[in-house]
Design a protein that fits this description.
It is built from 6 helices and 8 strands, in the order ββαβαβααββααββ. By secondary structure, it is an alpha/beta fold. The chain folds into 2 domains: 157 residues, Metallo-dependent phosphatases (Purple Acid Phosphatase, chain A, domain 2, 4-Layer Sandwich); 41 residues, no CATH class. The strands form 3 sheets. The chain has a 3-stranded mixed beta sheet, with no helix packed on it. The longest helix has 16 residues. It is flat.
């Protein structure tokens, strides 16, 4: 079973950033770069998608379907972004209500945003693709990750095989470390505990405002 840090393709690559459900833009880009069906390129170039395939745009299921086809054909690799992690966690976030079959207004107070809503078949296919995605890819001359390359966290990920389990385990450890040290005042901690990075390399404490010290 592969870990969450995997080997990156050799050879020339086209690296594609956050697509966010913009299926027409993705198709236009791949056509412009010379890719055909299932990510086949006449010069043998291959694709790497950096994650955040989904949310906000008009057709997230179509984006996942296209990328999954390229990956299955061996012509692309794809990372898990935070938006994929949110749906793997079954967590409703701004911009991802389509996954739960719910219309959503992306602009506060605005009209419902036109989006394809996922049905049960879509959700199962999308989860089946997203759940096993790696967090990082590397080869001798290049490392690729969605957010930041934090060596300590990537070392942990390189020994892990499931992003959801890693997220939950590390979140539990952080909460255990923080809870005894918390002294709350108006929602802020007056004396920050020892900083414990989470799996994305961030810290969970804030400094108090001067007025709250």
């Amino acid at each position: 079973m592969q870990t969450l840090v995997q080997s990156l393709f050799d050879g020339p690559l086209d690296i594609v950033g956050d697509i966010h459900g913009e299926i027409d833009a993705l198709r236009n880009l791949l056509n412009h770069l010379g890719y055909g069906d299932n990510g086949v390129h006449p010069d043998g170039q291959r694709l790497v998608f950096l994650g955040d395939l989904i949310d906000r745009g008009p057709d997230s299921p179509a984006v996942v379907e296209l990328v999954a086809g390229c990956v299955k054909a061996g012509n692309a690799q794809c990372l898990m972004g935070n938006h994929e992690l949110n749906i793997v966690r079954n967590e409703r976030k701004h911009g991802n209500h389509w996954f739960f079959g719910e219309p959503e207004a992306l602009a506060k107070g605005g009209p419902i945003t036109p989006q394809r809503l996922a049905d049960e078949g879509d959700t199962q296919r999308i989860l089946g693709f997203c759940r096993p995605l790696p967090l990082a890819l590397e080869r001798a001359d290049l490392r690729i990750v969605h957010a930041c390359w934090q060596p300590d966290m990537l070392a942990i990920a390189s020994r892990s095989v499931d992003a959801l389990t890693l997220y939950q385990d590390y979140r539990d450890q952080i909460e255990v470390r923080l809870t005894p040290s918390r002294t709350k005042l108006s929602g802020w901690w007056t004396s920050p505990p020892k900083s414990v990075p989470n799996w994305r390399g961030r810290s969970r404490w804030r400094r108090p405002r001067p007025s709250e010290r």
